[in-house]
Specification:
- Two copies of one chain form a homodimer.
- By secondary structure, chain A is an alpha/beta fold.
- Chain A has two domains: 63 residues, Hypothetical PUA domain-like, domain 1 (Ribosomal Protein L25, Chain P); 168 residues, SPOUT methyltransferase, trefoil knot domain (Alpha/beta knot, 3-Layer(aba) Sandwich), CATH 3.40.1280.10.
- Chain A is elongated, with a radius of gyration of 20 Å.
- Helix content of chain A is 34%, strand content 24%.
- In chain A, the strands form two sheets. Chain A has a six-stranded parallel sheet with strand order 8-7-6-10-9-11, with helices on both faces. A five-stranded mixed sheet of chain A has the order 1-3-4-5-2.
- Chain A contains seven helices and eleven strands.
- At the A-B interface, α2 and α7 of A face α2 and α7 of B.
Chain lengths: 244, 244
């Protein structure tokens, strides 16, 4: 935890906050702070800042000093064919730590329908897992998560609401590698969407629909990777190019 | 499993092989092959090829047809400060699937000494975990793993044996981003070494020693990432640049 994140309603009007549970325990036992010490804090979808520890017992009393600046929304969104629950669970904090604006969880031909009925998509569960990633990455911008059970409807209709995107990429085995120069040359305000398919990949009709809606197929290389590895490796490459 | 990997001594002189256990079960139950079907196979550190299923009972009988070409050794090596065992365990197959020539597991100031005494470094365990990654990525080149309990000795003496490297990079928070153009312009035969530190990072004296031995500090971006995420994100970016 590189940052203690407060929910907006935990911050009192006078700039103080009282925490209990996991976060209080972390500050007390891992950071081993004493009254008077400063810690990094932030407000979910709000500014970063510092907090002075006023009391560090069972209840953690903080006096917060917030910056005026709210971190920008990350420039990359992910469209992810829902992987198996164990993988999805592991990906939530990882995606939040890498920084994504939106996570569009999608159906795909090779996605098991029953995955959609598991607890990994329960909003409270997702939110808690994403917060862990933000605490790691010192960010306050909670990725917006939406679940789309109809792939065609997502691509044809619902995606318009999420964009606009300067670049739509779909991970797919092939010759075309990541367009580094195009990524590095994008204006600072422009956004990128990366679509990552299920284990076994997108089927031809899905690739056709994606191509028709402006997605360029890109491949990390000739090695077939697991969904979660492909996701992090490609977000790693895209992020590095955008930061370059 | 995108590839059934044989140990060299499992391949008989007449090109046949008999498998049992995990691999036989996978071919029987997941691939659902019948006699006469072809599957992708390879020999550890040897060529790729195909195998015709001769019998698919408890024992899987294969007739193998190997290519003359052995896949090249991946161009990237990783020097990794040993993370906590759970993380290291998860990383073995991921690193093998991304493709690394060597994994140099190192001590560092912020690495817990007791991690070195756990089963995650036991050679048989490591080998089995790496093979899972190769089966995923359709590669036969088993990463060579070495364990270095003395960081200074590794950097000053032992690293010379592992190289030579056209580029030595160390992941470290800061302004310098990945040198994409340099990576993309490297000659095809040249190799790259990426050093990834422990949770909490390298300490200044470690960074000085690394700098003295030709390591350039590079950062994925301003977000602090977990070791395993940083590893995959940076290998993703480096691999994509080398493949570009």
């Amino acid at each position: 935890m590189n940052l203690v994140l407060l929910e907006p309603d935990e911050l009192q009007a006078d700039g103080t906050a009282i925490l209990t549970g996991r976060r209080a325990r972390h500050v007390r036992e891992v950071l081993q702070t004493n009254p008077g010490n400063e810690i990094r804090m932030g407000v979910v979808d709000g500014p970063l800042g510092t907090a002075t520890v006023v009391a560090a017992g069972q209840e953690l009393h903080l006096r917060c000093a917030l910056s005026n600046v709210v971190p920008p929304i990350p420039r990359v969104d992910v469209l992810l064919a829902l992987p198996r629950p164990k993988t999805m669970n592991r990906l939530w904090p990882v995606l939040a730590s890498l920084g994504v604006g939106r996570i569009l969880v999608s159906n795909a031909w090779k996605t098991e329908r029953c995955y959609f009925d598991t607890h990994v998509l329960a909003p409270a569960h997702v939110r808690a897992a994403l917060l862990v990633g933000l605490e790691q990455a010192r960010d306050t911008r909670l990725p917006r998560v939406s679940v789309h059970r109809r792939f065609r409807k997502l691509i044809e209709d619902e995606l318009a609401e999420a964009g606009p995107y300067a670049l739509r990429l779909v991970a797919h085995p092939g010759e075309k590698t990541l367009p580094f120069e195009r990524l590095a040359a994008l204006p600072r305000a422009s956004r990128v969407l990366l679509a990552v398919g299920p284990e076994g990949g997108w089927i031809p009709s899905e690739m056709e629909l994606l191509a028709k809606h402006g997605f360029d197929a890109v491949s990390w290389g000739p090695r077939p990777l697991r969904t979660d590895t492909a996701c992090v490796a490609l977000l790693g490459a895209i992020g590095a190019a955008l930061n370059a």
